[in-house]
Amino acid sequence: AQPMIIAVDGPAASGKGTIARALARHYGLPHLDTGLLYRAVAANVLREELDPAVEADAVACCDFPDSLLDDPGLRTDEVGKVASIVSAHPLVRAALLQRQKRFAQQPGGAILDGRDIGTVIAPDANAKLFVKATPRIRAQRRHSELRKAGIDVTFDRVLADIRARDDRDAKRTDAPMRQAADAALLDTSFLSIEAAVQRAIALVEARI
Ligand code: C5P
């Protein structure tokens, strides 16, 4: 059988990560959350007290071991925001490109989630999903997660951050976030996690 490559793209808090992990379990495929690569660069920039807007500074932070990707410190909103700044630099994207392509091309197949998997990293993927939800619903999800984690932040702040990140990711010139022409659209706005995962499996099944 052909190795199966599944590409899952979409904005922050759309559900793409949860869906990608569930698909990986369902199909027994290795999974890479590519946002973690940009988050690792961002964490290095923050630790070295560099300016994420300066391309050369960000590029100098692109060498890191895979083990850094397991650091829970990568998952904060601050790191996510800086990740969306460093990710706009073409030389940062170039520095992380082969790592992602290699992961996608491993013999048994793979599933990757991010912003440009279906368009740039794995344009020949067997199945592509673009996962979305309204900004308000994504902000509600993120807000309740943050509140549960004991982080005191207003809904309006979270919504503004989500909109700013969407804007940066969709408007950059190099590999902007967009739905590939051959990607299936999955709107999770009014779906439970279980329903979204079932729908994702059905969409993949219809494409392989
Ligand atoms: O998905 P996550 O929120 O972890 O991604 C953090 C940031 O990394 C995104 O806002 C985006 O700017 C960047 N990113 C990207 N391309 C990817 C994955 C993430 O530019 N494939």
From TrEMBL:
Keywords of this entry: ATP-binding, Cytoplasm, Kinase, Nucleotide-binding, Transferase
Domain Cytidylate kinase: 6-205
Protein EC: 2.7.4.25
Record flagged with keyword Secreted: no
Bilayer-spanning residue ranges: none
Main location per the UniProt record: cytoplasm
Reaction equation(s) it catalyzes: dCMP + ATP = dCDP + ADP; CMP + ATP = CDP + ADP
Keyword Transferase: yes
Chain positions recorded as ATP binding sites: 10-18
Domain of life (superkingdom): Bacteria
GO-annotated cellular components: cytoplasm
One of the GO biological process terms: pyrimidine nucleotide metabolic process
InterPro entries in the record: Cytidylate_kin, Cytidylate_kinase_dom, P-loop_NTPase
SUPFAM superfamilies in alphabetical order: P-loop containing nucleoside triphosphate hydrolases (SSF52540)
Gene Ontology terms, MF aspect: ATP binding; dCMP kinase activity
Cellular localization per UniProt: Cytoplasm
Family designation: Belongs to the cytidylate kinase family. Type 1 subfamily.
Protein name: Cytidylate kinase
Gene it is expressed from: cmk
